[in-house]
Amino acid sequence: MTTNITPSLSFPPATYQKVDPNSYLLRHLSPTSTSTSTSTSNSGTHAPTRPSGRSADEFRPPTIHTSSLSHAHGSAVVRTGDTAVVCGVRGEILTLRLGEKKVLRSGIDSGVGSGVDGSGALKSYPLIVPNLELNTGCAAAYHPGPPSDWAQAMTQRIRSLLVDVVCPVEVNALRIVEDGLGEGDGEGDGREEEKEVKAYWVLYIDTVMISLDGNAFDAAWAAIIAALNDTKLPVARWDPDLDRVVCDPVQTRSLGITRFAFASSFGIFTAPPGEEAEAETWILADLDDFEEGVCEERILVVLTDERTIAKLEKGGGQVGSSGVGTALAGVKHLKRCTKMAGERWKIWNDLIKGKGKEKE
């Protein structure tokens, strides 16, 4: 009696990744998991790592190079894995409309969020103008043409952080005032010194994705903070004789960045239905392009120091058969993400301030 043995289906890991990406990632994260429908040629037991070789909570090592663009007042190139971003900051002068007058009084104005002309100027006059673009060939899915919805959404998220949440640039650093207005006239009579605002610096922040392999927001935001910290604007003054702003051709000044906020993104991955795994959910730090396609929920943590949260954002989840959405991440997951974000914040902070080993 002859027995016919059906040969098992076998194909390379790259093919398995495209055919069933969820099971492919699960077999890396949970070596004891079993797949009843497909087997691969390298189905042996291995350590629980992601396809990239990183552990679940491991970030890609970053590198930063500043002052790389000669035509910008400040610039930075940031690379994390195969994601690379270049950011340039260019300052231009915005004069007030004819007849418009803004007067600052010492002791009242203190920069962001207060004073006669506080942070509202950042919104009244668009003093910070970010823009993000995708370079041709940065990703296989990107096609040249008008700005995509994704790029416009990223630009809006960046602007919201810059203007509404973190505010790394104080309005004081962007004002060009007429010194001496009322100076000396009020001595001894209790009147405060006044300065009239004549113009503002407008910062155009252009960010270009050179190469995109996931987690674009973290890299783009770090490049923006590094470029702003590198920015040096010409010393500007108001010339009453010429009735215009005059810039010093040699002397410059920095923006005086004091809020070094950094973003850390995470993804929540769940085992596919019918699969046996060691855990139900995994928190993956710093997703690459493949992992972004299989993780159903995202978490973004923005810290201004190792413990202070400036923004916590969570989106996604699963939709059940009844059409009701279910969140995958709970409080314990958010706490863990915040802790990992604090460790990541320290790495970014040391790199930008020149203390890290990876800075080029």
TrEMBL record:
One of its GO terms (cellular component) is nuclear exosome (RNase complex). Residues 58-234 form the Exoribonuclease phosphorolytic domain. GO terms for biological process: exonucleolytic trimming to generate mature 3'-end of 5.8S rRNA from tricistronic rRNA transcript (SSU-rRNA, 5.8S rRNA, LSU-rRNA); nuclear mRNA surveillance; nuclear polyadenylation-dependent rRNA catabolic process; rRNA catabolic process; TRAMP-dependent tRNA surveillance pathway; U1 snRNA 3'-end processing; U4 snRNA 3'-end processing; U5 snRNA 3'-end processing. Keywords: Cytoplasm, Exosome, Nucleus, Ribonucleoprotein, Ribosomal protein, RNA-binding, rRNA processing. It holds the Pfam family RNase_PH. Residues 27-75 are annotated as: Disordered. Residues 30-45 have a biased composition (Low complexity). The keyword S-adenosyl-L-methionine does not apply. Its main location: cytoplasm. GO terms for molecular function: mRNA 3'-UTR AU-rich region binding. Belongs to the RNase PH family. This is Ribosomal RNA-processing protein 43. It comes from Terfezia boudieri ATCC MYA-4762. The lineage of its organism: Eukaryota, Fungi, Dikarya, Ascomycota, Pezizomycotina.
